[in-house]
Amino acid sequence: MQLIGERINGMFLDVKQAIADQDKKVIQDLAIKQTKAGAAYLDVNVGTAAADQEGTIQWLVESIQEVCQTALCLDSQKPNVIAAGLKVLNADNGGMLNSSPLNKKSDEEILDKYLDMAAQAGPKVNVITLTMDKNGVPQDIDTRVAIAAEIVQKAMEKGFDTQRLFIDPIILPVKVPNAQAQPGNILDAMAQIQFLADPPPHMTMGLSNLSQGTNERSLINRVFLAMAISRGLDSAIVEVLDKELMDVVATSEMLMNKQIYSDSFLKVF
Amino acid sequence: MAIPQVAQNFAGSVTEVTLGATAENGGTRTSTVTIGGAKNIVHAGTPADSAGRKPVIAMDVLDVAPTDWPDELMAQYADVADDPAAWAKKCVEQFGADMICIKFDGVHPDKGDKTAEDAVKVTKDVLAAVGVPIALWGCENNDKDNKVMPAVSQAAKGENCLIGIVEEDNYKALTAITLADGHHLITGAPLDINIAKQVNILVTDMGFPAEKIVTFQSTGALGYGIEYAYSIGERQRLATLAGDKTMAMPMICDVGYESWRVKEAKLEGVPEWGEAADRGPMWEATTAICLLQAGADIIRMRHPRAVAMVKSYINQIWD
After folding, report:
1. How far apart are alpha carbons A21 and B114 in whole angstroms?
2. How many CB pairs under 8 A join A and B?
3. What is the residue-averaged pLDDT of chain A?
4. What does the alpha-carbon distance between residue B219 and residue B213 come to, in Å, rounded to a whole number?
5. What's B232's domain CATH number?
6. A14 to chain B nearest CA, in Å?
7. Which of A52, B8, B51, B119 lies deepest, with the highest CB count within 10 Å?
8. Coil, strand, or helix at residue A125?
9. What percentage of chain B exceeds 90 in pLDDT?
10. Tally of structural domains, chain B
11. B202 in contact with chain A, both atoms CB, cutoff 8 A
């Protein structure tokens, strides 16, 4: 399971404040803590904290790289912000571009841009692709799978290794009116997405989104994570500092025979 | 038609481990060995850069003259069996051993009950006699090993030896002293992948670095459980490749001991089985080559002809 630590995101107040104060220490502590907790990647998202998004993502990347070599997941819907981050990213450590839909009304070529940037950055830089297109987030299973198929097809046509794709079926808050069918639909879509390539494309999701606004955030995240791992999820953007959630990852992977059982199997992270 | 490229790439790789310390690293070894580094299963039609370092052969030297070795094997060491230093020298200089594994059979309560002082003397003598890296392998009686091996470890401090074995129910004392003396450690399990993983977790939980561990899954000779040893070696490698850091260590196998105790290797006077003088070395070499394919990085061996065959195989595959 390749976990992406979600905490370095300008949506969190401590990070927002650190960006405003140019306080590296807060960012660096979060980088080290998440790495120790088992993050394979650290998400880096400027959020709405700064007017200068390009400069800020570079400051974040450089600050983190001063203290750890964990792969970074550059998180922005704007190609220019990703490109700015890539300029200072140490791609030898690995990386992830997060994320691109199949296409957008405002930018039909958006996926090409992300794939090209990753290809140019080097063989260890992967891309998160959303099962979403110019019509928005699909509500049904078939459209999700069809978009995922188009994404895989596009990567193949461009000669981009499908093992470098992390398909994100986009989990939305379960509390949104009429959204309660979506977690189940996503699980069914994931079961099919696995068959789009051999070996299967990676699948990831921004898990915490699911429980936005609910009273039982951690529980909802944990239970759905276990369900999704059973359908082939092999990566997730999560709160790696949530010990109980990490225990669910270890247990689910063990039960799916992806990790060898040992009496101390919870200590894998 | 072009042959399709089917080789898979994996996220994980076997940890690279260097054994032995030369003068510039505070030891007295004249050579070191580096093992591990494989990024794929053994000969999966993979590119040369994913095959990892060449496996090495550690030849056994016992701290007492063996009493139960078959004639064909004993004949190789008749002149040195009472002198571990001379024995080690012969293995390195005449038989091309990459490493020496001192097996402290003689300290076992049932096999001589020698003291820690005896074991320390053998260790020092062998270190002085040869320049290759050394593995120090206890008698596998927990109480006795806990008394003897700390002294042995201290006597070899600075030489970056490989010390073992620690097991699920007996790991604390030896792990602590191995860590303190800067050696590498062998974690052992009885052909049980779950226990193998558990021991690695227990040992690393004590602060022992995972990158200084070599695993011993137990070995079965050809015809005597080699399938189990093979499967576990393969399972360890596949877990490693999938990114399991608790299993990503190089692996050692005890082929010499296991091969030479089976009747097909040692029984004389059975003409229909072929010459005993050939059968034993063949049995040992075949067992070793099979386990190399499962992913073994260090092979403990005994007969010089078997060693020569296995070296030739290693050179053909890895060069």
Report:
1. 68
2. 32
3. 95
4. 18
5. 3.20.20.20
6. 32
7. B119
8. strand
9. 89
10. 1
11. yes
**How many distinct structural domains can be found in chain A?**
1
**Structural domain boundaries enclosing A37:** 2-268
> A93 and chain B: CB distance < 8 Å anywhere?
no
Read off the CATH number of the domain in which A165 is found.
3.20.20.20
Nearest to B198 among A163, A259, A263 (CB): A263
Instruction: Specify if B280 maps to a domain.
Output: yes
Of A199, A261, A264, the CB nearest to B202: A264
Q: Dihedral of the CA atoms B21, B24, B27, B29 (nearest 10)?
A: 60
Per-residue model confidence as pLDDT tens digits over B39-72? 998 876 666 678 899 999 999 999 999 999 999 9
pLDDT of amino acid B6: 66
User: Domain of B243?
Assistant: 29-318
Considering the domain boundaries, does residue B4 fall inside one? Answer: no
Would B188 be classed as within a structural domain? yes
Q: Could you tell me if A158 lies within 8 Å of chain B, comparing CB atoms?
A: no
Taking the Cβ of residue B193 and every Cβ of chain A, the question of whether any pair is shorter than 8 Å is answered with yes
Q: Does B239 map to a domain?
A: yes
Phi, psi angle pair for A44, to nearest 5°: -130, 110
> Does the pLDDT of residue B217 top 90, yes or no?
yes
- Residue from B6, B9, B187, B201 whose CB has the most chain A CBs within 10 Å, to mutate: B201
Predicted local confidence at residue B3, as pLDDT:
72
For B8, phi and psi rounded to 5 degrees?
A: -90, 150
Round to whole Å and give the CA distance between B223 and A253. Answer: 35
> What 3-state class would DSSP assign to A73?
strand
pLDDT at A54 over 90: yes
